[in-house]
Write a structure and sequence with these properties.
The chain is an alpha+beta fold and 748 residues long. The chain has three domains: 150 residues, GOLD domain (Jelly Rolls, Sandwich); 133 residues, Sandwich (Jelly Rolls); 425 residues, Alkaline Phosphatase, subunit A (3-Layer(aba) Sandwich), CATH 3.40.720. It contains 13 helices and 43 strands. Strands 4, 5, 6, 7, 9, 13, 17, 20, 22, 23 and 25 form an eleven-stranded antiparallel beta sheet that branches. Strands 27, 28, 30, 31, 32, 33, 36, 37 and 38 form a nine-stranded mixed beta sheet that branches. Strands 3, 18, 19, 21, 24 and 26 form a six-stranded antiparallel beta sheet that branches. Helix 5 runs parallel beside helix 8 and helix 6 packs across helix 8. The longest helix has 31 residues. It is globular. It starts with 6 loop residues before the first strand and ends in a 6-residue tail after the last helix.
Length: 748
Amino acid sequence: MRLFLVVLATLGVVAGCSRVGSPANPFEGLDTHADLTELRHLAEVNVRGWYLDFGTPAQSKYTVGDWRSGWVGKGVDGDTRYARVGMRGRVYFEAERPEALVARVRLRPHGTKALTPYLNNQQLASIHLGKGDGFADYDVELPREKVEAGENYLLLTFGGTTPIEGQDVSVAVDSIWIRNASEPPNATRAPTYDGLVANVRFGEEERQAIALSRASTLRYHVMVPADGSLGFGVGVEGEGEAPFTIEVTADGQPTVEVLSGAASGAWTDYNVDLSRFAGETVRIDLRAKGQGAGRLAWNSPRILVPTPPERDLEPATNVIVLVIDTLRADKLQPFNPGTRVKTPAIDKLASEGVVFELAQSPENWTKPAVASILTGLHPQTHQQKTGDAALPSSAELLSEHLQGEGFATGSFIANGYVSDRFGFDQGWDDYSNYIREGKSTEAEDVFEEAGNWIEAHKDGRFFAYVQTIDPHVPYDPPGEYLRMYDPSEYAGQVKPRMTGDLLEKAKRRPPQVVFDARDKRRLKALHDGEITKHDHFFGKFLERLRGLGLTDDTLIVVTSDHGEEFDDHGSWGHGHSVYQELLHVPLIFRLPNRLPAGGKIGDAVSTLDISATVTDLLGVPEMAGNEGHPLVGLMMGEAGIRPTVAFSDFQDDRRVITSARWKLIVRGNLTSTMFDLAADPLELNQLDASAFPIARRYSRTLLGQFLGATNRADWLSAEQKGGTQLRRENAEMDDTIRDQLRALGYAH
């Protein structure tokens, strides 16, 4: 076979060679990080235009997983898979440059005779739909002046609906084929999702492959892991050879051709070094540039990483999970070296354990956030999104699971929402909720009781769950801690025991309380003083554990349910937005002599993953139906086997995806906001959508796949099977519990 070899000095790669493998086996010593054949539903396919295949797993990346986008179900008619749409259907697709395009929509009308399209909120010419019963093609012209480089929003609106299977349906859509307007119409179409993979034989060797025409592009958006490479085999059917290239593009960078070659009628394997792009979100194009008959076949394209050494961690004997209510990550030195807040106990614990620098809470207030920590379920699954929602008995909590594994289980909870009334009393040998029982919620007292219980159970295996509430309103630290952050006299409107009521009134629109600069300094000082006071008693708790001889065999997890806003984005408190001051929380794991001391992980993770990580480190079976994933591999320096992203909700109005650098927020009306957390951790600068089209497409693709999943434990897979969905239950709300919650600042 004749090869066009491209030596890329900056990459250290020669086509067909690898830093890790050998010439005989370019994949030796490597593991699969991402199987791109299994993930072909996330790929974008171009054969004389980009082919959007509806009614298949490939649809979700174009329709935000059908979340609030107008798509109301899928169906099959012979060999055609289609999606039904109501009065309007939203579609998001990518264009590399502003240019005139044509979107050929293949559809079957049901309740309408007219289609009026909009591109990027600008109306286009209406189209009359035919009377036939079958699928037909309708061309929508997309003028150059309305097409944007990067993501484009195509809205299809219709004139009427008819009921089908309980849904109001306008049309069924088979596909949308988006091509350059100068490209003549052609009967050649990209293969459907179902036809992408075939068994292809060259000589005596048959392999499974993604088979496309000799002039085609297979496109993926990925985050490249450290020491990552792209492995694949390639060959071509028919006469002669077919040139191909592998191109990698990062936002703001020129496209890099990392490999150029020619496929022949024999399988040839390649392993292309991608380490230059480590940690970056990139677009990878597998581009065939040939002519003539016969398919070019891509065998097992995959992202590879070096095989990690075998891991044999001795299980921890016990576990303590500490949730410090209302503690945002940037108040702590391990997450923000510039913070003024003094927390020597947490700082020392962090230096002895592993710090996840970008841990995200699944929600912005206590009940859903803690439900996710204890069940390992996403808020959309456990449904604890409203004040009166309650976990049903069918929910499995970490306490129940470990109790079944022979652990003594004790809870010491100072937040009234994490109570028996809301279903959190399941699986505990000893359960305490200090609000419900009218006991002191001060950290000193909570840690004292927790320590007494641990001492009584130290000779067996135990799980202690401690949720302190000191940084929560009302902020009222002792004077010595307040003076650390505000030593001057103050005679303003901020009274410590009234801070809950003051913040609630300040959040109203229009606000009933307005804080001046001096008030704001006082509020922050009160909150910071509470954090430092809490740390003092946490330090004493750790000393007690050491005195009991429990330090070496006890896994300690420190996190928070959510943060707190101090006018960062025009409001106060929590439970109202999805900015980082509310979602970015501390996450620290300490297990001496097993987990690396002083480790720092920059990948985005979720507190949802805590329960799966705990069971892994305890050496017990995982929880059935848990939607989280163990973080132990990341702590040990291994590349994950799935994208390291975190998903967050705000009730049913906002959906968020956070990666190592990028954060995309999609609202219920499907407007979106994107931030670069590396350059702008405070989220002060909303990005121009056209500035980072690759990162945006990567985020949109994964968020759509997640939102369209019915099995959120395996959300990345194409075919969704199984999955957990809890039945919604409501708690009985009486005056006593309402008063207890109001005392914590929960006006609702």
